[in-house]
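quick one before i forget lol
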Amino acid sequence: MQKKGSLLKGLLPGLAFLAVILFMPSGALGSDYEVITSRTVPEPDAVLSGELEKPALVNVGVAACPPCRRMAGDLLELQANYDSIFETHYYDMHKHSGITEKLDIRMVPTQIFLDKEGEELYRHEGYLSRKHILETWADLGYDVQIVVPSRGVRDYLSLDYIFSRLSLAVQGAPLTAMAAAFVWGILSVILSPCHLASIPLIIGYINRRKVETAARATVLSLMFALGILICIMVVGIITAMAGRLLGDLGSLPYYLVAIVLLLFGLNLAGLVPLHWSLVDRLVPKNSSKKGAVFLGLVIGVGLGPCTFVFMAPMLGLTLSLASAEQVFGLLLLGIFALAHCMLLVAAGASPGFLYFFLRWNELSPGSSVLRKTCGVLLILGGIYLFYYAL
């Protein structure tokens, strides 16, 4: 019993930490984004036709994109401190209709460096820190004084530094690019609120299906992860062929996945009795591979926009290497996909969770607490998706 209690104490803080990362208020990040999107910007045609008096940094993103929100503060500082050298403008693609077509935006965030005649000098897809933006202007031949206060070790551990370095590293030497692709794949799950919600989902799915072996749990977790990945790739191809932002199917997929998360969450939390819910109609009650794949496919439909935010550096590089080094580009994408799936598989098949599932029966207090905790996280995940779909 002591062993079980220690496992419960180890599992619940992890899930609590997951909830903190997933739903922690954005605070200053949110207010910075609201400020940058409320400012008046010139029409894209005016920027491209050279009607501006200075060079311009054009940024395109969406509110549901974590890297876009993290860049908002840096962009405000660039507007305040470097406006005499270049203009900085931010376009939210949902507030400025047609911006993706006019600027040929494939993914967000995207930064476009333009001279005062409106000619494109450089384009970057993915997160880019203030320091790297200024270094890019300097590399393009502009007299830019780079003043970025250093905070020592904290700078190297900050998400801003990690985002920016990984975005640039995938364009570096082969070994560096492969390592960056692997780390980026893991972060695409950890730092994406949508994907974090899929972790308690697979844990709750395996727990509810009474999986009896470690191998079976691993296979189901893998099928779930592959279902998500396959659907994301298909959505990406369809939206690319349709000329839309990669992964953007509008708000409908968000509502679909939010409903699935709410159904499973209410069921796991014990708020909706099993015989009243639609869960078993969506996914077979037995621990079948088809059920895990189907669940992954459904979740993958709504994860497209979230995922492509983090896949931007990888896909941008892969597309740019399509003609010259296609094999290497696909290799990087494969490494990203492997790391992307690995965390979900580990969550559903880790020894601690498996011991919990295999040793504790459904009626034990610990198992009940775990199920309800996962249920609450899924409910919060569903509410989160509804909020961003509005």
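fyi The domain at 39-166 is CATH 3.40.30.10 (Glutaredoxin).
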